[in-house]
Amino acid sequence: MLNYTLRRLLMVIPTLLILVIFAFYLMRLAPGGPFTSERPLPPAVMANVLERYGMDEPLHVQLWTYIKNIICCFDFGPSFAQKDRTVNDVITQGFPVTLTYGFWSAVFVLALGVPLGIIAALRHNGFWDYTMTGLAIFSQIFPNFVLAPLLVLLFTLSWGLLPGGGWNGGQWQYIVMPAIALGTSYMASVARLTRGSMLEVLGSPYIRTARAKGLPERTIILRHALKPALLPTLTYMGPVFVYMITGSVFVDVFFSTGGIGQDFIDGAYSRDYSILLGLAILYAVLTFALTLAVDLLYAWIDPKVRAGLS
Amino acid sequence: MLSVENLHIRFRTGDGLVHAVNDVSFSVDAGSRLAVVGESGSGKSQIALAIMGLLAKNAEVEGRIMWDGQDLLGTSNREMNRIRAREIGIIFQDPMSSLNPYMTIERQLTEIVEHHEGMSRRAARARALEVMDAVRIPDAKARLRAYPHEFSGGMRQRIVIAMALMCQPKLILADEPTTALDVTVQAQIMQLLQDVQSDLGTSVVLITHDLGVVAGFCEDVLVLYGGRVMETAKTMALFDQPGHPYTRGLLRAVPNIEDPSDALTAIPGSPPNQHRFPVACPFAPRCADVVDICRETLPQLRDGRACLRPIEELT
Q: What is the average pLDDT across B214-237?
């Protein structure tokens, strides 16, 4: 198991390298650049600016410098568009924000979605099943740009319970609505996924065996059915969790949280190469970490997978 | 001890009712061994599930299943949980899928006695070891921590049998315990069942489609066809002089070891459509001895056979 984990971690290095090279050249292929504007800069100024950011060098030299700086000093370079900030600044300021509300959003998704799915499965074709399924479909088709204003309308404008935006160092009042707005549709998916897999597990021969043992229903669900029923949800949550903790552009903009979702979009509009590359690397590393975590959890649950790993 | 009286099981399905079991009665005495024989779809497994109270939700049941003076069909699920495993154990057909792949063998065995007998984890483990020895699983102590996929099919079936033995129930329902196994392993498992049965004095209802398996083990046989009892007899008598054309067909379909050149004879046709409640002998369309009356009258079980023709006239 340890061996496997180490192997997977080692794989990260070449994969990241390929990603960086690929993304670097791809971005440069796109027309425009960080310093193009409606009124072109005088050639002399342009040359100065390019030299200042090392962009007068050939592409492969720029790439090499970029990689060297990351390896030696963990320096992802200056932002091209935001004059006084480095990429490191942007990430260290913005990422904790999205990490916080994304994490709580994931907690909301699991804490609500999984029990709802289980209850629906246990009341299969009953009142609660239809209610849950209806609710789930409703929240899945309810886009967050409708949900977020609705939340603000109720919790801020009508009842005055929660602040309508901002971050304020991440106090809980500021986390609630971004987390719900971000998570609701995923919560619905998780509920439906859990319901489906729980139904399948409950129909399996080994659950019939458990019933034939005369165990109480509670024990059958919790001890025999829960783990296998959670496997699909686990697979689903890996990439979704990455998406959540890296934030959603909409949530960042609507609630003015100052998360990196906003930075990513700004970076794309202004061709802020270093920001885009830095965030791409962050996404990649998180994706690696989460898929590894999911695989290890899988191995923890399923002894057959565990046997395959060692 | 167990007496099944006029049991009917019907399933509500998308295309109407399916009459799976019709008017089946039998009884099992303490320490006795009964075989329920029939081909796939004859309703034999459903009878076992009905006794355990584990029928699918779309089943309708009628009749009585008396167990120590109590009608199990009228018993709540909670009450049934005190009977399941503790008084009546069941061995399911497919050991590959009837063990929980995510739990150790130890947990799957110990939880039974922990729940029913309030044993501590340690006492339960000791019991599990004892039972694993009884079903002859080698190196039981080391294998307690293993998962089902680490065992062969035969070993898994031993574990399933061990599960049924944990509480030393008075009755074991063995639903095709050897069907999923290799022939050599089949013989071992049957031997094991026999030893366990005689050691513990447990009653056994053996559900099978294989008359060969029945011969050495059961005293009584119940032959089912289309969910109805065709014949019921002492095993020896049944093999000597089968009283129903269907039984005769089944016996001809058992390979004869003494004379391998003896051709196997299959029963022509396929099992009956059970969407309608039969008005004539359900076996008539496939029967070698069929006469006109068989297609008009539903034979009742008389003197252990449900056949309209006298026994002397059968081929």
A: 91
